[in-house]
Design goal:
Layout: E1 3-5, E2 11-13, H1 18-38, H2 41-53, E3 58-62, H3 65-79, E4 85-87, H4 90-93, E5 106-110, H5 117-128, E6 132-137, H6 143-147, E7 150-153, H7 170-188, H8 193-198, H9 204-210, H10 213-216, E8 225-227, H11 236-241, E9 246-250, E10 256-261, H12 262-272, H13 281-284, H14 298-306, E11 314-318, E12 324-329, H15 330-335
Parallel strand pairs: 3-4, 3-5, 5-6, 6-7, 8-9
Antiparallel strand pairs: 1-2, 9-10, 11-12
Domain SIS: 47-191
Organism: Dendrobium nobile
InterPro entries: CBS_dom, CBS_dom_sf, KdsD/KpsF-type, SIS_dom, SIS_dom_sf, SIS_Kpsf
Length: 338
């Protein structure tokens, strides 16, 4: 059993008790259920509508742990691409950052108690700038709510902290509430995957929705091409030099006949021995390979590469006439972040 020094310098047990942990999760679940059971959906609807109808930017602000939630929600809303949204630190706002706030803007103030001095000091300054103010709080009849144009009450039964003090439940319901409101906005604005991806170009989400096969495939000059009448042994250089581990077997019109891989080479050599010198690529190639079109999404290529009965390392890229125009490899997809 491990031990850690207490604030007073004494060693205390540091092993998590499974039953105690279970009780804590049950307690948190009960507190979250209280929130869901008692939330005023009318207030939630009014808040969501205010965000949708905001003529200017939407700023979020909060102090402490509520500030982290405010920062996250502002980023999430901004990522939709419908509304300019940003986090306004309350202390920095009082030292110049409030200059970014304009009369058409909306300021959302998140606070468990509604009594944070930093937010209360910010309110008259934001009011003087002409912004509309909305508070999100969990204590009834708090001073912040009284000063704002709208208040959303998030029902909080109790913090799951052993002392009932640390914001481990209040911040959870703040985040759940805010993210659910954002999801509602996504639905009412009919946000498409393509629109969402445009604002996430560097992440896996964006890459899976933006990149097409044609963006990642090897093109004609880099393709390991051969004809079906070519001798296998004459094509070893082509098989190994293009970094694809395969040959794309084509006819005179550049239409795909089949594929021949380095694995096929090993199996052919094992079964035919010296007879391999007399074999053509066309005699041993796979005439029913998986293929994909250049306009298909790259994520579809990854799915096809990994699909049963067994994964493959590449897909020939062909047009609707089966003319070979490229090849996309597992290595290329992984390197692109998919």
């Amino acid at each position: 059993m491990g031990s850690l020094p207490s604030p007073g310098g004494h060693l205390v047990a540091s092993t998590i008790d499974l039953r105690d942990l279970g009780v804590l999760f049950e307690t948190q679940q009960r507190h979250l259920n209280h929130f869901f059971d008692n939330l005023d959906l009318g207030q939630a609807q009014a808040f969501a509508q205010a965000l949708i109808d905001a003529p200017g930017a939407v700023f979020f602000s909060g102090i402490g742990k509520s500030g982290f939630v405010a920062h996250k929600l502002s980023q999430t809303l901004a990522s939709l691409g419908f509304t300019r949204s940003s986090y306004l630190p309350p202390v920095d706002a009082l030292h110049g950052d409030i200059g970014s706030l304009f009369p058409s803007d909306l300021l959302v103030l998140i606070s468990k108690s509604g009594s944070s001095d930093e937010l209360l000091k910010l309110v008259p300054c934001a009011r003087a700038k002409g912004a509309r103010l909305i508070s999100i709080t969990s204590v009834q009849s708090n001073p912040l709510a009284a000063l704002c144009d709208m208040n959303v009450h998030l029902p909080l039964e109790k913090e799951a902290c052993p002392f009932g003090l640390a914001p481990v439940t209040s911040t959870a319901i703040q985040m759940v509430f805010g993210d659910t409101i954002v999801a509602a906005i996504m639905r009412v604005r009919k946000l498409t995957k393509e629109q969402y991806a445009r604002n996430h170009p560097a992440g896996k989400i964006g890459k899976s929705l933006i990149f097409k096969v044609k963006d990642l495939m090897k093109k004609r000059e880099d393709l390991p091409l051969c004809k079906e009448g070519d001798m296998i042994m004459d094509q070893l250089t082509e098989l190994t030099s293009k970094g694809c581990g395969c040959l794309l077997v084509i006819n005179a019109e550049n239409r795909l006949i089949g594929t021949f891989t380095d694995g096929d080479l090993r199996r052919t050599l094992k079964s035919n021995g010296e007879g391999i010198f007399k074999l053509t690529v066309g005699e041993m190639c796979n005439r029913n390979p998986r293929t994909i079109t250049p306009e298909a999404m790259a994520v579809e290529a990854m799915q096809k590469i990994e699909s049963p009965p067994s994964a493959v390392q590449f897909l020939p890229v062909v047009d609707d006439q089966k003319v070979v125009i490229g090849i996309i490899t597992l290595h290329g997809l992984v390197s692109a972040g998919l």
